[in-house]
Structure formats: C-alpha cells, structure tokens
Amino acid sequence: MTNSGEYPQQQQSSAPVHQGGTQGGAYPPPPAFAPEEPPKPPKPPRRRAKGPLALLAAVAIAAAAVGGGTAYAFQELTGKDGTSSSATNTNVVPTSQKGTVSGVAEAVSPSIVEISAKSSSGEATGSGVIITGDGEIITNNHVISGASSVKVTTNDGKSYDAKVVGTDSKKDLALIKVEGASGLKAASLGNSDNVKIGDDVVAIGSPEGLTGTVTSGIISALDRDVTVSTDEDQGQQQQQGGGGWPFEYGGEQFNGDTGSSKTTYKAMQTDASLNPGNSGGALIDMNGNIIGINSAMYSPSSSQSGTGSSSGSVGLGFSIPINTVKADLDTLRAGSTD
To answer: Among this protein's residues, is 142 annotated catalytic?
Structure first.
C-alpha cells in the first residue's frame, strides 16, 4: 500500500555491490563535463646566444645583407687572418712561418732569378724578379744595358734565353722576357707607400754570382735622392771590375765615377747586406711582398777610385720603390728605350 501523493520507498537491496557497479547509488553520477586539466607550467624563456656563437651568427646575417664587405668584418671581429685578393695586401708567407726570414725566403725565392748579360765589354751578373707566369722579369737597366745577349737562370737551376722588352734609364729599370717559359712563379708586388722606417725586410739576389742569396735587415731611411749613370757601358765595366754600380748621394760618389750622363731618383735605404750582383733583385716585406728593386749599394774598396779590391757590404744599400716600378710597367711593356 502506498501513501497518497508519495513515491513508493525503495527498499535497500541486500545484494552485494561489485566494484565498478551502479547498484544502490553507491557512486555519484558522472560529471556533465570532463574536468579541466591543470595548467602547464610556462616554458622557460629562450636564452640568447652569447660570445663567439652570437658574433658569428651576426656576421653571417650581415653577410647576406651586404655581401663582400663582411669578409673584412669577419676577419677583424674574429681575429682570423684572411688572404686578400689585392696584391698589395697579400700574405704570401704561410701563417705558420709568418714574420720569419726563412718563411719569406721559402715563399719568394722561386720568383727571383739570376741574369747574365754579355756585351762587347764582357759579361756581368745581376738579378731580376719574375712578375708574370710566362716570364716577364723586372731588373735594373744597368744590369742589361748594352748587352748583346741575356740569359736567365731560375731558382730551380733552369736556364733560358731572354730578350729585352723595354728600358728606362732615368729610373734605372728594365723589363725582359724569357723565351719558351710558362708556369713560372710570379712575385706579389706590394705597396711601397706603406713602408715605414724600421720595417724588417729581406733581400734576395745573386751577389758575386751566388744565386739565391738571402740577407735581412731593416728600412733605414726613405726618399733618398740617389744619382746613377745612364751610360749603357758603365755599369757593365764597373761590375766586372768588382766595384759595383757607381752612384752619387749627398754630393759624394761611390763605387767609381758616375760620368756626365746621369739621373736621380727617390730610393729606400736599407741595411740588408747587398753586393755587386744584387742589382735588380728583390727587397721584400715580411709578408712576402716585393716592396723594392735593389739598385745601388756601397762597396768600399782600397782606393778612392773604386778600382781596387772590394771589402764587401757595409749596410748601405738603396732600392727603387715598387710603386715606381708599377707606374712604369706600361711604358716598359710598350717597348720604351729611354
């Protein structure tokens, strides 16, 4: 029997309740919506790269934006040496030997030659610098002046006939070219405007026929007014006599009489040992760049006339700045005989 207006009372079941069952209202009904997951902890902020990594990244980005100009920035910021495409800044000497005389000698010696010039007065020996792979060679005018034949011997002992392409007696320069040669090692021509007094230098040439002789010293002075003869036979005669190429400086004559036909040019002074036969050879900076062509050296003798026995170098040598040479190349290549 039920009470009026009331729901019948449910009797508690005596049946056992199984885990996970739904009988008897033992468990609350499931929620209408799944519970929200607890919020995840915030990610730690990304750390910006510091030090060399950030620096390299910045340089790489700049490189994409402005191109070749960043090569210099990379070198300056990272402190790493790079090889410049400009001959005036080239590091010819390997990094492991940079700044050493032996490194300069090893790198540049293949570009220096011995020159033998025969004339009616006899035979004289000088030096030269290879400037192209097919055999263009810069030397002094007085080395080949008046020569009927010219022979060149390279650092590896090979011998070539050579012809005179052009001469400039006023600058004491000449351009010759060997015949039948290719693949020669051309020297790197530097920038003599950057040379400073006190800079270390290396000289390579063939003094007294001693091919490939290496000496070293410093730049002693700049812009010396050196006066030399333009007489084509005088240099040949003086070299054979052992007195070296005659020149004037400061109103005094050295190595004999320069004669009446002469010219004056600006020269670099060096105390690197130079002797007869070094004429036309190279004066080199410590990166292996040619900064001058050795042209005059004082070789004191037992008499004032310079005809006695030579007593060797006293560390007073002069070199034509390489920028003077470069400015004259087109004229020499055109066959000048001035």
So the answer is: yes
Matching residue, tokens 């300056």: 76
Among 109, 273, 270, 278, residue whose Cα is nearest residue 210:
278
Q: Tally the residues of the chain.
A: 338
Q: What is the mean pLDDT of residues 140-154?
A: 94
| Cα dihedral 120, 122, 128, 133 sign | positive
Catalytic residue from among 111, 142, 168, 285 = 142
Catalytic option among 116, 168, 172, 231: 172
Produce one character per residue of 316-332: b if its CB has 16 or more CB atoms within 10 Å, e if not.
bbbbbbbbbbbebbebb
> What's the pLDDT tens digit per position in 74-112?
333 333 333 333 345 578 999 999 999 999 999 999 999
- Known active-site residue 273: no
pLDDT in tens, 6-18: 444 544 444 444 4
Q: Name residue 294's beta-bridge partners.
A: 319
Residues 6+ apart with CB under 8 A from 195: 219, 222, 268, 285, 291, 321
